[in-house]
Amino acid sequence: MAYNLTEDFGPVGYPLKMVSSETEEHMLGWNIPDEYQYFVHEHWRNYPAVSKYWHYGLAFIYTILMCASCLGNGIVIWIFSTSKSLRSPSNMFVINLAIFDTLMMFEMPMLIANSFYQKMLGYQLSCDIYASFGALSGIGGAMTNAIIAFDRYKTISCPLDGRITKVQALILIAFSWVWSLPFTLLPAFRVWGRFIPEGFLTTCSFDYLTDHPDTKLFVMCIFCWSYVIPIIFLCFFYSKLFSAVRMHEKMLREQAKKMNVKSLASNKDDAGKSVEIRIAKVAFTIFFLFVCSWTPYAFVTMTGAFGDRNMLSPVATMVPAVCAKIVSCLDPWVYAINHPRYRAELEKRVSWLGVKEPNPDTVSTSSTATSQTQNPQAEA
């Protein structure tokens, strides 16, 4: 029988294992008390317990992600909510997405602690809290991305009368929160579905392994609700948006030829629209990150419910789970790289980041002056 440090030292024995020799090999779930064994699915008991170094490595990765998410999303919420140049209905969706991403960050301290103890601390209650944060932020973030795509499409395709008002923005934000609640509360209170540990048994998600028609129906419904429907909205609005952008750029090229000018942004309105197009590219980048981050996890859940579960080893399920967390950390930095007005505010207020961006309004004024100088020459 393996020597267990916790028998002599209590809970402090788990951190002491960091400097101890490897113990005898156990199966996953061996260190969970008998009264809580029920919430570990039988699938995971077929695998040997993961090496402690996998746990410590995962804790290190999540520590980095937590710091990046806290810094990035904190700055986004601060600057977008306090800057006059960014205080618009459209940017309310950016703040909403940052809030959802921050909720994802709340899981990370729990996982870091769980990794050092190599089990889910708090058992079922902690599992429900951990998975609820993940469900709320993941589903809400997906729908917020779809709303941002709708807003970008409306703003660019109908720049004069298509902009969303503040009241409409608040309604859409409320809708994103309502959309995220059903498949957060139903499994949390075991009305339909449940949350159980997965992978290394230090994280939790909804049950996609139980071989029961009710579980399969739940997995199919949450797959459509949280992934398929937002993806359909995103693809529809971005396809419409890119069609509008292509038409606009074609019109500018033709106009530039007629006026014999080099710049497509030949006046303030066109320069402003160019800024909107840059923002649309930011939104599309975030959409692309969302698809890349959540598609592997969607594959894992559908495989667990309807495919070959032998493919789902602890490591194979933890990698997609980490990918899903990464997107919440990358979103704010994508804005920092590409969003023109946000970059201008970063340069003024967080200069130590080293961001350089000319003021978009100054650029627009300069473009107007250039246009006025070039037009008489073209006419001559």
UniProtKB/TrEMBL annotation:
One example GO MF annotation: photoreceptor activity
Membrane-spanning ranges: 53-81, 93-117, 129-148, 169-189, 217-238, 282-306, 318-338
Main location: membrane
Annotated keywords: Chromophore, Disulfide bond, G-protein coupled receptor, Glycoprotein, Membrane, Photoreceptor protein, Receptor, Retinal protein, Sensory transduction, Transducer, Transmembrane, Transmembrane helix, Vision
Annotated ranges, domain G-protein coupled receptors family 1 profile: 72-335
Coiled-coil parts of chain: none
SUPFAM superfamilies listed in its UniProt record: Family A G protein-coupled receptor-like
Topology class, membrane: Multi-pass membrane protein
Purpose of the protein: Visual pigments are the light-absorbing molecules that mediate vision. They consist of an apoprotein, opsin, covalently linked to cis-retinal. May play a role in photoperiodic photoreception.
Family: Belongs to the G-protein coupled receptor 1 family. Opsin subfamily.
Protein name: Blue-sensitive rhodopsin
Gene from which the chain derives: BRh1
